[in-house]
């Protein structure tokens, strides 16, 4: 880029600029063609290399009908992937070219004056780096084109000036007029860049005819034909220009109605365009016409019109001089008239000593003095003081005298003191008396343009270096440091600084700055208000602060002291106001007063603008990268794939996720064939139809379809949900279709499960209703059984209360031997009946499940043998009951009552399974259990009780649910469904197990496993006569709400040696306790109105620790009864009471 900028500085024409840009663009972005398009008067002209299109070279196009005009009008860069798809492209102009893709960037700020185009022969995407490089080239081209134009203007002006000098020399040397006019035409034809042919026709005042006087390059046949054309004789451009005294342009002779008479002649000589301009004298008299011809139809360029202006003025001067030459020889006054006719030229004559002898009207207009003010004065009166001191004027006279001419270009001074740049010649006069003549023009504008050109070259180099430094900088602070260093060195200032402004609009920080040698840094924190109201107001309003002399421009209260304190004598400070808030400042400081030039102020502003634009662009790029990264992460995390189908190029782009959906796990290019091949055959037609509808300009539907894919590499079938839309150009053509794809295989599987679920819903509802009815029936049966249990328990409780005094009385009568032998037999029979009643009540309590679990050593063999008769009596004659219980079986740990109930339930189940009869076998045996046994018990010794039948048996499904509560196969009202579950629960409570083996049609065997006991079972209590007590054992408090029970128990306690205190309720016992009544033993019923026996026992133990307590109850349920309180079941005999009391710690 630096090499390019140096070459661009030296470029002398737009063609050279294009050549440099072409080479640079090819190297930087690989462009195959480069063109610069210049807009003038609403038309765009191409300065292009042949590779773009020979047809464009030298042509102009309407600015509103070409892409370059659009770029300049909108001041925006355009990057076109394919020129065939953009409506702004004139297809007929591009069709014969190789151009398929382009980037066009505007040149010039703020209003573009040209455009830089880069061209490629294939459609392609243009990345940010390509666009940035071309925009950088465009910034270089901005100044380069201006430089080239100024250079061309300067060169053209110099060439015109040189040509003018040569023509004036011919005129002064009295060269024949025809030769001078031929020389003029040859000079301007040589200067032409558009290769026109010139012709001069002079008016014959006597005949009023136009005579051909000059046209060395025109065919003789042509100028002979038009020579002698009378004004008004024909409507051709030459005649009408003279007739109407105004320029006439015929851009296309073949189609111009004014050329009807001479069209065939002109076209036959290869002349297709004609521009005719009248030539006038200084007094306005018509002298003739100057005509330019071109070999192609076209409009004149600005350079052509400049040459026309030069020719008509020069020819006017030469012709007027030639016609007045004879009179000049006769009369000096006549000569003066000729000289003064050239108002655009200053013509001054001097005598041999350099004194002014004549002063033309042109000299008066340019310098400001009238002739009477200067004639007779020294000729250097309008030279600068420096030139007067150095005798520059007399040096010119000497050079002219020695060499015949002295060219001169320098500053001169007008009468009013202003300066102008004079350019012309000093020549000796060919007269007897000698002297000199100086002819010059005011060329101040051209000189200043050249100065501007040099300044532009310096700016071009500066901004090229700045852009090169900023190109790879991605942080704001680094960019500002680079800029202030370069700006400070370029302007040769004391200091250049950048500051960030706080949100309060007052405090600001200068973090670092550029300082010239010997200048201290201004880095630090400052308050803006301390720099005075002018500085603060300008910064907050977004205006550039310009102070050329701090001490002279700022007062005591206007921040002068603050500026002086940090050695600022002059300053330019540019603010950055963003969203209405002052956010930053950049300033250049001079430690002494400095007259800042407009170009310096402009440079600082543009540097600030470019730096901030760079910072904003870098920040925007960073935000874009972060946004793209967030989008990528979101898409990756959401497992969403995207796709892009380029309809025009017939290409397909898939993300990695999309490839995975199609079973492609390698990063390889894909085509539309991969898409079609990956579709499931059953979904291919519908999917393609949906895509066609989305790409159809008439329908433009949303592409929303679910389809299946078959993985190319893994063969897996996946469900995909795809959505997308078509992208259409202004002509309605679909350019591409883009969208997303999501793997919905899991959702589809769930939907299929739901469909299957719905399909079986009715059957499952019927099944659920049936199961609910079964549960409700089982619940009703359970509630019925619960009610029966409660009723049975209550009846048993009452029976026990009735039996207690009966058993107690019979026991006492039997022990005391009341009556004779016959009476004793009756008492023994009554006692036997009472014992049988007691056993019946215990079984009722077991049935009602009101018996607490009392695990003791049980003689299982005897228990099974004793139940044989009971089971046989309940099964009927069709079923044979076999009991197999060997003698001397070891004891097992069990609750005898609940074990009997469980065996009874298993026997009933076996009976019900043999409706047509069979064999029931009840057996007991010892078994050693090892690890992995079917009972899943821990290894050890166990007793196994089994109930086997030869009934219907159970299938696997029924067997799996056999121990579920309320599950029954007996039908509604024929079973509770609790027998097996209760047996299973009892076995688990006893640390045993329940196992079931069953085969449909063969029968069922239920095994009840019990742990083996290490102690011997208790023998049945014998009825023995308790000895009479030798002394009182203590005081017993007896509490029972049944009077007969209380009386019977009181007699027993008294017989055992206790003094008995009776209480009919728990409340009465509490009153005795609170009154201080002493007692050693508490014997209380459990279930009583008010306070229960358990609550009473707790109160007594709390109030009198150590007091013996015994609970007696005919309804012995566990709920509410402390397990550590001794208890005795009703009814009981005296010896049972005595044995229980002995276990409390004393002898009865």
UniProtKB/TrEMBL annotation:
Residues 703-756 form the PAC domain. Residues 794-1014 form the Histidine kinase domain. Keywords: Coiled coil, Kinase, Phosphoprotein, Transferase. The keyword Nucleus does not apply. Residues 758-785 form a coiled coil. Residues 1035-1145 form the Response regulatory domain. CDD domains: HisKA, PAS. NCBIfam families: sensory_box. This is histidine kinase. It comes from Phytopseudomonas flavescens. The lineage of its organism: Bacteria, Pseudomonadati, Pseudomonadota, Gammaproteobacteria, Pseudomonadales.
């Amino acid at each position: 880029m630096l090499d390019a900028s140096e070459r661009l500085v030296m470029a002398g024409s737009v063609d050279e600029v294009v050549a440099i840009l072409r080479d640079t663009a090819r190297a930087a972005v690989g462009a195959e063609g480069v063109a610069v398009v210049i807009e003038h008067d609403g038309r765009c002209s191409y300065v292009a290399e042949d590779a773009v299109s020979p047809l464009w070279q030298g042509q102009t196009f309407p600015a509103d009908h070409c892409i370059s005009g659009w770029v300049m009008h909108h001041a925006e860069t355009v990057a076109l992937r394919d020129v065939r798809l953009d409506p702004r492209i004139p297809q007929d102009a591009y069709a014969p070219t190789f151009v398929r893709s382009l980037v066009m960037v505007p040149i010039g700020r703020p209003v573009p004056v040209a455009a830089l185009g880069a061209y490629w022969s294939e459609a392609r995407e243009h990345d940010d780096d390509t666009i940035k490089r071309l925009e950088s080239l465009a910034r270089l081209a901005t100044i380069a084109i201006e430089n080239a134009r100024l250079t061309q203007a300067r060169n053209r002006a110099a060439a015109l000036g040189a040509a003018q000098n040569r023509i004036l020399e011919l005129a002064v040397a009295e060269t024949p007029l025809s030769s001078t006019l031929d020389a003029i035409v040859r000079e301007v034809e040589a200067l032409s860049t558009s290769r026109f042919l010139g012709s001069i026709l002079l008016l014959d005042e006597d005949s009023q005819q136009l005579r051909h006087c000059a046209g060395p390059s025109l065919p003789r046949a042509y100028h002979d034909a038009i020579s002698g054309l009378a004004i008004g004789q024909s409507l051709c451009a030459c005649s009408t220009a003279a007739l109407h005294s105004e320029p006439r342009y015929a851009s296309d002779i073949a189609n111009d109605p004014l050329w009807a008479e001479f069209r065939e002649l002109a076209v036959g000589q290869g002349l297709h365009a004609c521009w005719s301009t009248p030539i006038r004298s200084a007094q306005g008299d018509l002298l003739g016409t100057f005509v330019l011809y071109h070999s192609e139809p076209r409009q004149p360029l600005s350079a052509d019109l400049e040459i026309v202006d030069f020719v008509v003025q020069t020819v006017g001067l030469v012709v007027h001089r030639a016609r007045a030459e004879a009179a000049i020889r006769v009369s000096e006054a006549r000569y003066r008239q000729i000289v003064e006719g050239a108002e655009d030229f200053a013509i001054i004559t001097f005598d041999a000593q350099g004194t002014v002898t004549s002063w033309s009207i042109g000299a008066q207009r340019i310098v400001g003095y009238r002739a009477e003010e200067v004639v007779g004065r020294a000729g250097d009166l309008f030279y600068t003081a420096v030139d007067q001191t150095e005798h520059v004027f007399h040096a010119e006279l000497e050079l002219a005298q020695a060499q015949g001419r002295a060219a001169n270009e320098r500053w001169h001074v007008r009468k009013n003191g202003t300066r102008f740049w004079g350019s012309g010649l000093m020549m000796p006069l060919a007269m007897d008396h000698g002297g000199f003549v100086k002819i010059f023009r005011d060329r101040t504008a051209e000189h200043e343009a050249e100065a501007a050109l040099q300044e532009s070259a310096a700016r071009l180099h500066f901004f090229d270096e700045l852009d090169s430094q900023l190109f790879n900088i991605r942080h704001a602070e680094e960019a500002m440091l680079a800029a202030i260093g370069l700006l400070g060195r370029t302007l040769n200032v004391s200091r250049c600084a950048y500051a960030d402004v706080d949100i309060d609009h007052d405090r600001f920080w200068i973090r670092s700055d550029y300082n010239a040698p010997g200048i201290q840094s201004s880095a630090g924190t400052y308050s803006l208000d301390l720099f005075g109201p002018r500085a603060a107001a300008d910064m907050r309003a977004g205006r550039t602060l310009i102070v050329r002399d701090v001490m002279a421009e700022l007062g005591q209260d206007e921040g002068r002291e603050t500026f002086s304190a940090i050695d600022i004598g002059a300053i330019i400070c540019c603010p950055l106001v963003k969203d209405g808030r002052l956010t930053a400042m950049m300033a250049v400081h001079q430690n002494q007063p400095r007259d800042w030039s407009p170009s310096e102020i402009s440079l600082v502003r543009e540097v600030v603008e470019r730096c901030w634009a760079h910072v904003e662009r870098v920040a925007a790029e960073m935000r874009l990268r972060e946004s793209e990264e967030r989008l990528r992460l979101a898409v990756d995390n959401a497992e969403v794939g995207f796709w892009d189908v380029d309809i025009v190029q017939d290409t397909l782009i898939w993300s990695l996720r999309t490839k995975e959906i199609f079973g492609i796990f390698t990063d390889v290019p894909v085509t539309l064939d991969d898409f079609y091949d990956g579709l499931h055959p059953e979904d291919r037609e519908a999917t393609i139809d949906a895509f066609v509808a989305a790409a159809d300009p008439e329908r433009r539907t949303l592409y929303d379809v679910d389809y299946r894919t078959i993985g190319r590499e893994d063969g897996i079938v996946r469900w995909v949900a795809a959505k997308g839309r078509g992208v259409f150009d202004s002509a309605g053509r679909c350019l591409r279709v883009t969208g997303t794809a999501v793997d919905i295989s899991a959702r589809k599987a769930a939907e299929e499960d739901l469909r299957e679920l719905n399909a079986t819903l009715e059957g499952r509802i019927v099944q659920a209703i049936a199961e609910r009815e079964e549960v409700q029936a089982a619940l009703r049966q359970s509630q019925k059984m619960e009610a029966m249990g409660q009723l049975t328990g209550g009846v048993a409780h009452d029976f026990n209360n009735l039996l207690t005094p009966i058993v107690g009385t019979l026991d006492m009568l039997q022990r005391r031997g009341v009556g004779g032998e016959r009476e004793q037999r009756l008492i023994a029979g009554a006692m036997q009946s009472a014992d049988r009643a007691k056993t019946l009540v215990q079984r009722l309590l077991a049935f009602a499940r009101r018996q607490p679990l009392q695990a003791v050593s049980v003689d299982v063999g005897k228990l099974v043998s004793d139940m044989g008769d009971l089971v046989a009596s309940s099964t009927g004659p069709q079923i044979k009951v076999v009991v197999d219980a060997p003698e001397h079986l070891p004891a097992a740990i069990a609750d005898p009552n609940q074990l009997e109930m469980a065996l009874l339930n298993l026997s009933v189940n076996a009976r019900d399974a043999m409706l047509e009869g069979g064999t029931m076998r009840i057996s007991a045996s010892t078994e050693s259990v090892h690890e992995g046994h079917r009972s899943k018990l821990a290894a050890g010794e166990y007793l196994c009780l089994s109930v086997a039948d030869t009934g219907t048996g159970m299938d696997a499904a029924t067997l799996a649910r056999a121990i579920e509560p309320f599950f029954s196969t007996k039908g509604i009202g024929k079973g509770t469904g609790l027998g097996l579950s209760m047996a299973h629960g009892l076995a688990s409570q006893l640390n045993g197990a329940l196992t079931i083996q069953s085969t449909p049609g063969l029968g069922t065997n239920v095994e009840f496993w019990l742990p083996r006991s290490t102690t011997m079972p208790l023998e049945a209590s014998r009825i023995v006569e308790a000895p009479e007590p030798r002394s009182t054992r203590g005081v017993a408090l007896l509490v029972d709400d049944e009077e007969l029970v209380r009386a019977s128990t009181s007699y027993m306690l008294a017989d055992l040696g206790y003094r008995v205190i009776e209480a009919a309720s728990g409340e009465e016992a509490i009153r005795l306790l609170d009154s201080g009544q002493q007692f050693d033993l508490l014997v209380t019923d459990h279930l009583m109105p008010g306070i229960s026996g358990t609550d009473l026992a707790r109160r007594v133990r709390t109030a009198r620790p150590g007091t013996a307590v015994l609970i007696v109850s005919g309804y012995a349920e566990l709920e509410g009864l402390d397990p550590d309180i001794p208890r005795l079941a009703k009814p009981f005999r005296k010896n049972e009471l005595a044995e229980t009391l002995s276990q409390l710690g004393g002898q009865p």
